[in-house]
Amino acid sequence: MRIAALSRATGVPVATLKYYLREGLLHPGAATAVNQAAYDDSHVRRVRLVRTLVELGRLSIADVAAVVAAVEDEDVPIHDTFGITQDAMVHDVHRGAHADTSEPESAHRLVDELVARHGLQVRPDAAVRDMLADALVHLAGMGVIDLLDHSSPLAAQGTALLDSLVVWFRDMAAVEIASVPETDRAAMVEYTVVGTVVIETAMAAIRRMALEDASHRRFADAPARTRARSGPATRR
Amino acid sequence: MRIAALSRATGVPVATLKYYLREGLLHPGAATAVNQAAYDDSHVRRVRLVRTLVELGRLSIADVAAVVAAVEDEDVPIHDTFGITQDAMVHDVHRGAHADTSEPESAHRLVDELVARHGLQVRPDAAVRDMLADALVHLAGMGVIDLLDHSSPLAAQGTALLDSLVVWFRDMAAVEIASVPETDRAAMVEYTVVGTVVIETAMAAIRRMALEDASHRRFADAPARTRARSGPATRR
Predict the structure, then answer these.
(1) Chain pair A-B, CB pairs under 8 angstroms
(2) Which of A13, A144, B79, B214 has its Cα between 20 and 30 A from that of A119?
(3) CA-to-CA distance for A140 and B189, rounded, in angstroms?
(4) What local confidence, expressed as pLDDT, does residue B53 receive?
């Protein structure tokens, strides 16, 4: 097919496809004439992978290029390709965050201990470790559960919660990874990206609903000073 | 304090503070002279709220303005302010997604049923409903667990998983919302934003670690065609 047909098949504008070609995200088509090339199903699948990485994974173009390179290089084992993809999906904001305080060290130690305690096979330099450490530093900053302060009475409770999350997610992950189809490498990476992001989104949405419900129960009918002035109690 | 001191106290550049003032995200200081104003602790707290909404909540400036307006208007009950904030935190990509297919209807029905089955107090027009429906449509598109297809043998299993997530998160949310301090409105909103985003991040990170672990167990030692060419098995 010509580039216009590839655009129709994928819903991606021709200008964007040309950009992908220039950046090496999309492999060239077979040259059929000067300034003309033929594209096939492999291009359709690749464009779909790139869109998934950009839209669902929210990867930068540079990160997409790294993932695509790993997908293309069949010398890179598929598990390593997943690792490269997972690293690229960790938002920059979590990398090297809080380097100016002493907290990241204790947060990273807590993460290392958690990984070791459960015997998780997670690379020592996996970006997801920074992601969790960053969240723990923010959590400590909130002043509710400071897992980083071992003298806090809630630290043990917080650690127990982390442990139960690991157990819960390990069981879920085994089922999810077992369902990855052994098709071509690009399809496998696309599947894991969609699986990672979509189930994350679904879980976050359900948790937010539970928070709204809990907020309703605590705050909606509270006779707040400002409540009396705000009109009927049914207003929401 | 002058604006330079406010900048030092918050770590936000003067130019950004002036932008916040122009956009109404930050209330004006007390005029002390022509072109000079004095800022106080309320400004420090407000800047912190805005930074939290932008950096952790990833809100647009327009959405931050809506949240700030709700925080400032004491006629808006605090639970409604939480709702406005939660709506603003749902990424645009989830709103009105997939409007071109028939799937959103069945996805929204599934969400409505879930909310009703558990008696969750979630506003009928809460953006988080779109967020969950969008995730379910994507999940169906993956072809593993299609919750939208009632004839699928896995649909019942998937629904049971959603139910268990609601129960799990409802218990967690009750504890979290109970810990919201009854301080000033801005602090309460900041607390819920940080709590929503930070715990989401921590959970996502732990799940991703579990996925890497499961991927390692399934794929790292598999004698793949490409594995043999890739060097020693310890390479990761």
Answers:
(1) 275
(2) A144
(3) 17
(4) 86
